[in-house]
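Per reviewer request, we include the raw input and output of the structure prediction for the construct analysed in the revised manuscript.
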Amino acid sequence: MELRCRGLLFDLDGTLIDSLHAVDRAWSTWALRHRLDPADVLPLIHGRRSIESIRAILPEIDAEAEDLVLRQIESTDIHGVKALPGAPELLRSLPPDRWGVVTSGTSDVALARLGATGIPVPRACVFGEDVRYGKPHPEPYLRGASLLGLDPADLVAFEDTSAGLQSIVSAGIRAVAVSFPYDPVIYDYRHLSVRIDGDALMLSIQTG
């Protein structure tokens, strides 16, 4: 299928990069510090800001202080973090003012992981601390659209979680899933090509 747009937005973890093992290690360490079973904690954390997950899991503790501890663990453990196949090549082929990252991760964690993968840091970045409301609220992607100076209707965004896809759609942006049951979906960026057509980007997506 083909989509015509003027800009692209990407989630980071699970969408542009594979950081699953690093994320799970950090949260397992945090869970054990609080005598929690990591198997109970890990299903609750993906797709939203870490501070919101902490508040949901342990509402009685100082979430801001705990989030700082978790961020320190995550930003210093980049072992095994890697780009999804085809992602660096795709991003380097795009005009730098036409794409950005919208992540629930904080800037310290996200920049460490981008540095580990060789993916360039875009001019337009929305980090977890930049918004009042995280995904699935539309604010993160609306802010991303604003940073690119584009109308949401002129964008396509990529996500790998239900919360992220809800955030995209509620912002009025067209969504493409990455390894998530949704239509359309891609499994890595070798299934996507982009052609520049004047002021537009023409996306060719190999689905299935």
